From TrEMBL:
PANTHER family: HYDROXYMETHYLPYRIMIDINE_PHOSPHOMETHYLPYRIMIDINE KINASE THI20-RELATED, PHOSPHOMETHYLPYRIMIDINE KINASE. The lineage of its organism: Eukaryota, Fungi, Dikarya, Ascomycota, Pezizomycotina. Keywords: Kinase, Transferase. Transmembrane segments: none annotated. InterPro entries: HMP/HMP-P_kinase_dom, PM/HMP-P_kinase-1, Ribokinase-like. It holds the Pfam family Phos_pyr_kin. One of its GO terms (molecular function) is phosphomethylpyrimidine kinase activity. This is Putative hydroxymethylpyrimidine/phosphomethylpyrimidine kinase 2. It comes from Colletotrichum tanaceti.
Amino acid sequence: MVQGRVLVIAGSDSSGGAGLEADQKVIAAHGCYAMTATTALTAQDTTGVHDIHHVPQEFLVKQIDACVGDIGVDVVKTGMLASPATIGTVVEALKRHKIPRVVVDPMIATSGAELLPREAVAELLEGLLRLTTVLTPNIPEAKLILEDSGYKSVEVKSVRDLDEMARSVQALGPEWVLVKGGHAPFKADFTVAETEDEKAIVVDVLYGQGEFLHIQSPYQSSTNTHGTGCSLACG
């Protein structure tokens, strides 16, 4: 059996719970081979991001070219891209190397810190989304993407609202969109929960090729959510 080759283009998390470090663990657990191209170094822990050091664009290109040119890449997964310049660099590399499958975790807002500055969303929309096989935004990220595309803000009050959000984001270019519903848990009757005690179900919505897939999970109350988005996108 041929081992899948996955190149992760993302930031490094000093605490090991998210970013490149989390991605490599998940990829290895799925029996695939993980490579990395580091976009930024972060001083980070479970409470948030305390500082960011950006990697020069020329060095990022060298990392990508080294992995693709020697080992080869079946899938690229992007995480923290950190700046408009980095998005442009990644888009150019994806086109130049003709990468067949691209998974994008937009990482616009995580743990209260904007790991992709708001001004970079336009670059994301204009370039990267059109090359994306699967986009994995949470609800706040999906809202920001839609607002910056001129769409009216969507308030999630039902599964139908999640469907509309996924459909609208997918229309911007990605082949598939997975909207993660953890920011809007539902009651048992699938209306939005107002209190902690009412939270019973989380619904993720996958949309592409004109079809919806609803993934239901029991709601779990936890503060241990650091790196969950990174891990899911690598799964």
